[in-house]
Amino acid sequence: MKGFFRSQEEKLAARYLRWQFEKQGLAPPAEGEIQGQASRIVTEAHRIARERGGNLLDIMKGLVGDFLKKN
């Protein structure tokens, strides 16, 4: 079972993803896909924060931006 903080981070990442899709006028993918991508973003943000240090929220925002540029 996921920890409380991890769950909240994933919810925040999913909400930010949805907002970015809306902001760019793109149709959001299925909810399951958003949740999966949010989980991957949080995992990658934690890895980057461990390696380089930095603010987790700022790292997640950058990763969401990168994800949207690819799609």
Which word captures the global form? globular
Cα(first) to Cα(last) distance is 30 Å
Instruction: Decide which structural class fits the backbone.
Output: mainly alpha
- Major sheet description: none
Explain what the structure shows.
By secondary structure, the chain is an all-alpha fold. It has helices spanning 4-23, 31-52, 56-70. It has three helices and no strands. α1 (4-23) packs across α2 (31-52), α1 packs across α3 and α2 (31-52) packs across α3.
What's the layout of helices and strands?
Layout: H1 4-23, H2 31-52, H3 56-70
Helix pairs in contact: 1-2, 1-3, 2-3
Short structural summary:
The chain is mostly helical. Helices cover about 80% and strands about 0% of the residues.
Which tags fit this structure?
single chain, 71 residues, mainly alpha, 3 helices, globular
